[in-house]
Amino acid sequence: MKTVLRSIGIYLLALYFMPIIVPGFTIEGGFITLFIGAIVLALMFLILKPILNIISFPVNMLTLGLFSIITNAFILYLLTILVPNITVQPFAYPRTYISGFIIPRIFFNTFFAYTYSAFILSCFNSGIRWLIK
Q: Which of 13, 38, 66, 96 sits most deeply, having the most CB atoms within 10 A of its CB?
């Protein structure tokens, strides 16, 4: 029970910061939607993620673990289906200049928006879990 509550709290915090970090990630409906999304996401990561990891084990071994980002993107896609007020849309980062380096405009279509959002979500989740320990 303690693990489930901790996961819900971490995903609540992660979902709160996702629209700030990722431009295409939107949450409408306030705290209720955020809380429901955190509960659904925590349960999917605790129940569905191990099943998907077992199914995708051979592909995950071939890609040296990079396929786990795709399984996280799939779980995030299921979250947007189960909680309709959470959406991931295609977006673009504008062209920027940083210390003389030119970073061109980067456009993310729907698949890469889910993949990028899942990557940021897993990094945020790992960072918060590391800070808690």
A: 38
pLDDT of residue 51: 96
Chain position carrying tokens 């209720």: 32
Mean pLDDT of 73-102: 92
pLDDT, average across residues 70-87:
96
CA–CA separation, 43 and 82 (whole Å): 12
- For the chain, the domain total comes to 1
Spell out a b/e string for 10-47, using b for 16 or more CB atoms within 10 Å of the CB, else e: bbbebbeebeeebebbebeeeeebbeebbbbbbebbee
d(CA 53, CA 77): 16
* Containing structural domain, residue 55: 2-132
CA 125 to mean position of chain CA atoms: 9
What is the distance between the alpha carbons of residues 43 and 19, in angstroms, rounded to a whole number? 21
Q: What is the DSSP letter of 87?
A: E
